[in-house]
Amino acid sequence: MAKLLKSIISIIAVLTLLSCSTNAGSGGNSVQKLHGDEKNTFTIENSMQTTKREISVRMLTGDQKITFTDEYSIKTIERAINGANRIPGIVDVVFPDFRVIAGEEIYDLWLREVSGSIMNLKDTHTVYTLTPASAKELYELLEPIIDKQ
Question: Mind listing the pLDDT tens digit for each residue in 50-93?
């Protein structure tokens, strides 16, 4: 029953995101890493403090956290972020499900089994929707912490 309620709330949240958007501006087709006026696609780089690439994902409704260091998981997350589509206009958002920390980039993530949205905390006026395939892949990666709720 709790999972059904969470799914219903998530569907309402996504519909709210879509209904609050406007048709102003079309923007890019990927979440962008912002460096001044440059627009670069998102990749995880080795930082000076660590010897390997890693992405940490934490549920914001509890203390569950998972850190990915394997190439498959990191590439899956990079593909999901880079393949996300910008929602035009300004959107109202609900509390996110996850916080994704990848090097210096931090994202909020709203995720269901076949849908999701992501927002770079450096640009909280822009939300991107994940493709259904990417949402499914991310959901499968995060199942170990999703199942613990």
Answer: 457 899 999 998 889 999 999 999 999 999 999 999 998 777 88
How many independent structural domains does the chain possess? 1
Q: How large is the average pLDDT for residues 11-20? A: 42
Residue range(s) defining the domain that contains residue 13: 2-146
Angle at 76 between CA 139 and CA 18, to 5 degrees: 55
Q: Tell me how far apart the alpha carbons of residues 23 and 139 are, in angstroms, rounded to a whole number.
A: 29
Say if CB 84 and CB 133 are below 8 A apart.
no
φ and ψ of 55, to 5 deg: -130, 130
- pTM of the predicted structure, to 2 decimals: 0.67
